[in-house]
Amino acid sequence: MRCVRWLLAVITSFTCLVQAVVLRDDRQIEVTIAKPPQRIVSLLPSLTETVCALGQCQKLVGVDRYSNWPESIAKVPRMGGGIDPNIESVVALKPDLVLMATSARGAERFAALGLTVLALEPRSHADVQRVMRIVAQALDVPVAESDRVWRHIDAAVNAAAQSIPAQAQGQRVYFEVSRAPYGASESSFIGETLQRLGARNILPASLGPFPKINPEFVVRAQPDIIMVGDSNFADMTTRPGWQNMRAMRTQRVCHFKSEESDVLVRAGPRMAEAARLMAKCLTDKANDKPKGQP
Description:
Layout: H1 2-19, E1 21-24, E2 30-33, E3 40-42, H2 45-53, E4 60-63, H3 87-92, E5 97-100, H4 107-112, E6 117-119, H5 125-138, H6 143-162, E7 172-178, E8 182-183, H7 189-196, E9 200-201, H8 215-221, E10 225-229, H9 230-236, H10 246-249, E11 253-256, H11 258-264, H12 271-287
Parallel strand pairs: 3-4, 3-5, 5-6, 7-9, 7-10, 10-11
Antiparallel strand pairs: 1-2, 7-8
């Protein structure tokens, strides 16, 4: 009988070892996932969307206040934001995995309280694919499924690029991310998408992915097209010299609705939808170009 118990203990231990997964997150910390998580808290919208894109939405028990897609997570409890997570509420949910950005606060506190934390922050197209693979491994989803989702996204971005007519290629674009203002440069994932769509970004990679810029820089650069969220557009019109910019005078400004802006500024599985929105803007505004304008 004692031998049987010993054998069962060995088998149980072996099973646990087989299920354990060790992953390196974006803090360069090795994180051990003892078993496939059943209760997940996500504190970054792009990670929330990644979990759902992998078919694991039902395992989300808490999300940050900005996670708003897909609609099925509408009733999932809100846990604050990346910079102000409600640590007590997260702990009370007893999650077996917390997903959050490397720039978010609370990772060390969560770990000290015994929670498993995986910190990931996609900043490029390659990062979206890489992070999706890591999340898949953490959730015990076959990597082949993650790769399938990525191939669909990548193919859809290519399709968006191919939909743009020749006359809309090569336009110089300023993409504003938020007030101050902050723009998306060539080195950002937004800049990568614009490049794949055949557009030219007025903000060079040397400024960093999302630089705070002097508004006069944009006036001097004279972009052909401006892309901005509805909430920021009103602020643009009050900046000195901006009303006289050619793009503003000729209404070659695409101002996106709030839900569209969410898609555009998140490096995640809706990247193809973002590409389609930008492609439509480039095409529509090229067609709107006043006669005689070069």
